[in-house]
Amino acid sequence: MKTAAPGHQAHHHFDDAERAAVYRNILARRDVRGQFLPDPVADDMLARILTAAHFAPSVGFMQPWSFVLVRDQAVKQRVHDAFTTANAEAAQMFEGKQREVYSGLRLQGILEAPINLCITCDRDRAGPVVIGRTHIKAMDLYSSVCAVQNLWLAARAEGLGVGWVSIFRQSAIREILSLPERVMPVAYLCIGHVSHFLDQPELQTAGWRQRLPLDELVHFDGWGGDAADAGALRDELRAAQALAARGLLPF
Predict the structure, then answer these.
(1) pLDDT tens-digit map of 2-22
(2) With helix as H, strand as E and coil as C, how does the chain read?
(3) Does pTM top 0.85 for this prediction?
(4) Is pLDDT above 90 for 163?
């Protein structure tokens, strides 16, 4: 039996059950708005999902994120007020039937979720020159989004719902949470136990937008490029997406 060299991971792949759990988690994740329960989230569970977020990849290992926990109802109310103002503005940006559908959508659970969490990006955390950020300055923001996804998947594995609220002015969130000028609010999340998870994304069920065909989004060796053997992969992509749409694992 081979042993791993010092500093190397011993196992290169997950077993079938572990692999299935990863894919099931990804397929079962939902943006939760209206299903939050008032039950508190235990500290050990909260610590686990924050740890998952902290172990996200980051360019230059700069780890630009910080986590602002919001439990105070008065602070939540101020955030909710900021959302209400922006949501009314957003509704006016749509026309006709779309505005009607938009107005009927539940797009946040700020007051109902026991925990609100703002994940931020400190754009100066690693100094003015960062490995991997020398030419694409937004890589620190992208890294913080990776932390959001890590937390979201960890929360789903714990049975917690997460909803990302993005309908408010960043300046309002910055003021409410007293964020320093260099710190960018990246994601405002509602987190808590839920009564249920929806089978399909809520916007898809509401008819707002359907999931795009994956096989039409894959290009070869350049935008719009194709390949002689592309047909086989496109068939596999269509089959995998069809299974995933039914909540089945694509293997």
Answers:
(1) 667 788 888 888 999 999 999
(2) CCCCCCCCCCCCCCCHHHHHHHHHHHHHCCECCCCECCCCCCHHHHHHHHHHHHCCCCHHHCCCEEEEEECCHHHHHHHHHHHHHHHHHHHCCCCHHHHHHHHCCCCCCCCCCCEEEEEEEECCCCCCCCCCCCCCCCHHHHHHHHHHHHHHHHHHHHCEEEEEECCCCHHHHHHHCCCCCCEEEEEEEEEEEECCCCCCCHHHHCCCCCCCCHHHCCCCCCCCCCCCCHHHHHHHHHHHHHHHHCCCCCC
(3) yes
(4) yes
